[in-house]
Design goal:
The chain has a single domain, classed as ABC transporter involved in vitamin B12 uptake, BtuC (Orthogonal Bundle), CATH 1.10.3470. α3 crosses α10, α4 packs antiparallel against α5 and α4 packs antiparallel against α10. It is mostly helical. The strands form 2 sheets. It has a two-stranded antiparallel sheet with strand order 1-2. A two-stranded antiparallel ribbon has the order 3-4.
């Protein structure tokens, strides 16, 4: 692996780490399988791109993107809780709707940001090379988001959210409105995903309506890989593992794409296959470890 590929994997790992934290919030904390993320990631990219094109400060556009993602997550939560639609179906309906919404927002299937200001301009203006500026900035964003989630999940509302995912009947008997908690949690998750999408768009200089395809698979793979490698005994450790899992996942992808076996080599079109293999290995490895310990 070249240094260029290594820095690229770190950059991708941190910027998509926000998305992974959002996926962790729904799948692990709320026990809510949410496919909305495949639509909310390009939603954040679309909102941020349109805002920047209209002259809005790049950092302020991130808030707009997060708000749009929160609204998208709320729609999924409301469909599930208020209209009694199965969570998977509710998230699929929102995801499909967002495809049209994103095109409506941008006015076209994609939008370029070439020549427009981005959040990276401040660091590159200090003389940092672009690859180092992006890695540093996205790393800071990921660490801040992780720390904020650790703090939030230790609050009364955060503990209520954890209890809702663990035992909704018990927490309902305590007088908690689980519908509100689910709507808030799914909204917060998709706000993080949309924020990730906005940063990705500003980094690559374009937003595309199809850039969210496979987001949920990559997010789940990162969560599972992180839990397998770093453990998840506490919420804090699990969140750290989710963020680092995103980095490990991207490094593994970069390493796999650089491998060559004679005439055979992996190409970007093999990304889904590589992801599937990584997830299988991460899921199977704990069972293999237990068997070896049992024999020892």
């Amino acid at each position: 692996m070249t240094w260029y590929a290594f820095y690229g994997a770190l950059e991708q790992g941190f910027v998509y780490g926000l998305m992974v934290l959002g996926v962790y919030l729904t799948f692990r904390v709320l026990d809510f399988p949410d496919l909305t993320v495949d639509g909310s990631l390009p939603l954040g990219a679309a909102v941020s791109s349109v805002a920047i094109t209209a002259g809005v400060n790049p950092y302020l556009s991130l808030l707009y993107a997060a708000a749009a993602g929160f609204a998208a997550g709320m729609v999924t939560g409301i469909l599930n809780t208020k209209f009694r639609i199965l969570h998977l179906l509710a998230s699929i309906l929102t995801m499909i709707s967002l495809y049209s919404v994103n095109i409506r927002i941008m006015g076209r299937p994609n939008m370029t940001l070439l020549g427009k200001p981005t959040v990276l301009d401040a660091l590159t203006g200090l003389g940092l090379p672009p690859y180092l500026a992006s890695t540093t900035l996205f790393g800071v964003f990921g660490l801040v988001a992780m720390a904020a989630l650790v703090w939030f999940l230790r609050t009364e509302l955060g503990q209520t959210m954890i209890a809702t995912g663990d035992n909704p009947q018990m927490i309902t008997s305590q007088g908690v409105n689980t519908h509100t908690v689910i709507i808030l949690g799914v909204g917060l998750s998709n706000a993080l995903v949309a924020l990730s999408g906005a940063l990705v768009a500003q980094n690559q200089g374009a937003a595309d309506v199809g850039m969210g395809v496979g987001t949920i698979v990559a997010g789940l793979a990162s969560v599972i890989v992180g839990e397998t490698v770093f453990g998840c005994r506490t919420v804090t450790r699990a969140l750290i593992a989710a963020l680092l899992g995103s980095v490990v996942y991207r490094l593994a992808i970069a390493l796999a794409l650089g491998l060559k076996f004679g005439e055979f080599s992996f190409t970007p079109s093999d990304l889904n296959l590589i992801t599937a293999v990584l997830v299988v290995v991460a899921l199977v490895s704990p069972n293999i470890k237990r068997r070896f310990r049992g024999r020892a």
